[in-house]
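Troubleshooting log. The previous structure file for this entry was overwritten by mistake, so regenerating from the original sequence record. Sequence copied from the archived sheet and checked twice against the printout by T.R.
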Amino acid sequence: MTLESTFNRWLVAWFVAVVTVASCPISAASFDWEMQRIEGRDYLPLAKVAEFYKMEGADEASYFTLLQGEEGEIEAAVDSRQILINGVRHWLGFPVIERNEVPLVSRLDFVKTIEPALRPHRIRNLVPFDTVVIDPGHGGHDHGAVGKTVDEKDMNLEVGLALREMLQQKGIQVVMTRETDVFVTLEERSRIANKTPSSILVSIHFNASPNGDAANGAEIFSIAPRGTPGAHDEYLTLSHMRAGPGNEFDEASLALATVVQHAVVGSLDDRYDRGVKRARFAVLRATRSPSVLVEGAFLTNDDDDLQAASELWRANLSVALLAGILDYRRLINDDLAPKNLVDYREQDSSGLALSTEGDDTDYTVEPRN
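Regenerated output below.
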């Protein structure tokens, strides 16, 4: 018996337990999923996912599926790992496939991506936090991505320090992995986070592409679940079957990433949404708390680089990150469904205006240029 087949057998029982604990409207234990075993992996018909969430489903030319209902909206396409959940792009571990003109999604992707992204307010293992560990990437001799006008290490630190000030004014404690232009190892960044109790980690970065202007926009990463490849991995390997310390917080990290991406894309909606992605970056893999890594823009893209060089745009990004973190905290403390893309855009069509509940500080994103 292979390692993957052993893992999949274990996952059958775990799948029922996880979805049942999620307080779904239909009991997962008694629900007929019509699960199909295909090439050693379990798949669920998207039509059954629609039934489970009491959504209406519609197919177009059998390769595109739109599910809509009170729980939200899901758009998926056959042969694609990209899926839209309430308007924000997510990357699945495995492509949606089609058998006998029936679109199917892997069971693992349903449990680890669709359910926590669609209904983060139903995750039962979310733990309250009182501290945010802000991790400005790179530093010192490590410049990170180098744009025509800015260096990543400097942008990471500036956004991180601005975010720290706003969080502290909201009464949230902050620990920085670096406060100046110094080099900090990846191991030390996780060590700082792991010795900070009752915390979440937000690692701040800017992106680069070998193809220059071909890539632009914002993306965010959380830890790839055990048994799935990361967004940029083409194949499933045995290394993907090993769990790291960060995998204890799969769903919480995905929820944090989803909530923050909705805030960033919803408030800076001229940015291209590159999605909520999964990876095994060292800082995500080794950190024992909900953790995300934000990529604010591509410094190798002329337009992105120009925007990142704008003090106003960087301030807007910091406020958007703050909005996502505060919404995640309300999700945990008040058991409220977080705002989504539409909510942010309807809130203020010219930018993001944050609620001031809890203090007298007003955070407003200025209108976009």
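The chain is about 35% helix and 20% strand. Archived copy saved in two places this time.
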